[in-house]
Amino acid sequence: MRASLCLGGGLAALCLLSLFVGVIPVTPIDVLHDRAAWELLRDSRVPRTLAVVIAGGTLAVCGALLQSMVRNRFVEPMTTGTGQGAALGILLTTWALPEAGLLAKMALASAAALLASAGFLTIVQRLPPTQPLLIPLVGLIYGGVLGAAVTFIAYQGDMLQYIDVWMNGEFSGVLRGRYELLWIAALVAALTYAAADQFAILGLGRTASINLGLNYQQVMIIGLLAISIVTALVVVTVGAIPFLGLVVPNVVARYAGDNLRRTLPMIAGGGAALVLLSDILGRLLRHPFEIPVGTVMGILGAALFLWLLYRPKSHAL
């Protein structure tokens, strides 16, 4: 309970700070007396803060779901081909159907991400269970192959300039009217909470799950759909954010255990807070210029990952 309150308070403080940090200085007093400051807050700062919170929280939840589905702590959607599959779907849509709207791109990106995720799960099911490190290694190779396909197609279509946008998270372009699709991702991630107990059972393995009465295939399909839709929406709107789905579920599990019913809200809050911190740092470190949140998150995520590897295991609270 104390950890949840601290996390909630920290997230609220970061959200408040995010509203008043940027190239144009704004204070609460300015908002009350200056119409231009209020419009800046309404059209840019509030949408940006909401986009960061939604993207961070939903990607962290998807990381926890994927780790339960493959029974491995070292995987996340952005390192197992799901993010690369979403980028491939957007690229093919932009190349073949340049007149397609955002909803069409989102739908095709989700379908490509779903196929990529299904391909990864098909591969890992054939790996020996006694070699758990093979799963993240295969995921990195699989994601690298898909990433190479994205680069090749972009080169052929003279669209290499789009790759950095889709493969490196960036919130500077988020404005009112350009982030609302992320609310669908928030809804999908929230709906997975209703099946949190089933995903926890899924982590016991196929045989144990079936023996406990779980519809294994149905829960796997639900998880795949949720991960694919959320990842595609985030990549379409703001780009890929590395390490988030890997480190946040592991940090929460280290201190709060593996009960997803209990920890999923903490995972969502932790992911939102970490991405929000990265976004604020990106705005401040080279002010008035910005560092993409994907770059800052990559550094923070790598540091947290090394900490997870070398710090002794703590007892769950």
List keywords for this structure.
14 helices, 317 residues, ABC transporter involved in vitamin B12 uptake, BtuC
Can you describe this structure in just a few lines?
This protein has 317 residues and is mostly helical. It has 14 helices and no strands.
Structure write-up:
By secondary structure, the protein is an all-alpha fold. It has one domain: ABC transporter involved in vitamin B12 uptake, BtuC (Orthogonal Bundle). It has helices spanning 2-19, 28-33, 35-70, 82-96, 102-124, 134-156, 160-167, 182-192, 196-202, 206-211, 216-237, 244-256, 260-284, 293-310. Helix 4 packs across helix 11 (216-237) and helix 12 crosses helix 13 (260-284). The longest helix has 36 residues, at 35-70.
CATH superfamily: ABC transporter involved in vitamin B12 uptake, BtuC
Largest sheet: none
Shape: globular
What are the segments in which pLDDT stays under 50 over at least 5 consecutive residues?
none
Tally of DSSP β-strands:
0
Element-by-element helix/strand order: HHHHHHHHHHHHHH
Say what oligomer this is: single chain
- Residues in helices, as a percent range: over 70%
Enumerate how many helices there are, as a single number.
Answer: 14
User: How many structural domains are formed by the residues?
Assistant: 1
The fraction of residues assigned to DSSP E strands is under 5%
Class computed from helices, strands and strand pairing? mainly alpha
Question: Ends: how far apart?
Answer: 10 Å
User: What is the C-alpha radius of gyration, as a whole number of Å?
Assistant: 19 Å
Reported by name, the CATH topology is ABC transporter involved in vitamin B12 uptake, BtuC
CATH class: Mainly Alpha
